[in-house]
Structure formats: C-alpha cells, structure tokens
Amino acid sequence: MSLVTEFNDYRGKMNEKIMASDNKVIKRIFNLDTNTYAEGALSEKTKEMMGLACSMVLRCDDCVKYHLGKCHELGVKSEEIQEIFSVATLIGGTIVIPHLRRATEYWEELINE
C-alpha cells in the first residue's frame, strides 16, 4: 500500500469516527478549517501552499501530507513545491529537515501515482 493510500484511508476512517461523536465544537473546528481554505481574496491554491509552508514550520507531518495532496490536486508544480520547501526550511530552521525528507518522499509518491 502506498504512503498516499495509507494516509488517506486512515485519515478518512478516523475523521468518520470523530464526526460520529457529534461533538458541536469539533464539528465547528472542522467546518472552520474547510472554510478557511475556500476560494476568497486569495486563491484556494495559494492558501494550500501557505498551509503547506506553515505545517512544515510547525512540523506536523500529517498536515504536510494533507496540504501536499491538496496542492497536487490543485496543479501545484514540483518547482513550486521546492520553493515552498525552501521557504519553510529557512523560516523553520534545520529542525524542519527531517520533515522536508518525508515531504519530498510523499510528493514523489503523489506525482508518480
């Protein structure tokens, strides 16, 4: 099973369980997240690229994978991804490098699917 399939399957399964709890606050947070990345003054693509950079700096591998997937869906090119990686690594420092490695591996899987 590929990294992409494994991540998406797990994320989907767990999101279903979380939403089944019918917790109003959690549902509102999920909705806020969805609405934040919707098209607005900034394009959805721009917002996803920003989300990717922020997630790398915050060192959240699940978030990095999610935003890489969305960037791929929205047509972000590998050259653009490399520039996002460079900004995130500069801002986050060398502690981001392990996440950069995993992000590079995940991006390669996305583009080779």
Topology, please?
Layout: H1 3-20, H2 24-36, H3 44-58, H4 61-73, H5 78-92, H6 97-112
Protein name: AhpD family alkylhydroperoxidase
InterPro entries: AhpD-like (IPR029032), AhpD_core (IPR004675), CMD-like (IPR003779)
GO molecular function, one term: peroxiredoxin activity
Would you mind describing this structure in some detail?
- The chain has 113 residues and is an all-alpha fold.
- It has one domain (3-112): AhpD-like (Up-down Bundle).
- It has six helices and no strands.
- The chain has helices at residues 3-20, 24-36, 44-58, 61-73, 78-92, 97-112.
- Helix 3 (44-58) runs antiparallel to helix 4 (61-73), helix 3 (44-58) packs parallel to helix 5 and helix 4 packs parallel to helix 6.
- The relative contact order is 0.14.
- The model has no long low-confidence stretch (mean pLDDT 97).
CATH-defined architecture = Up-down Bundle
Q: Tell me the radius of gyration.
A: 15 Å
Listing every helix as H and every strand as E from the N terminus to the C terminus, the arrangement reads HHHHHH
Number of domains: 1
Strand coverage percent? under 5%
CATH superfamily: AhpD-like
Unreliable residue stretches = none
Q: Give the integer mean of the pLDDT values.
A: 97
GO molecular function: peroxiredoxin activity
Organism: Arcicella aurantiaca
InterPro entries: AhpD-like, AhpD_core, CMD-like
Protein name: AhpD family alkylhydroperoxidase
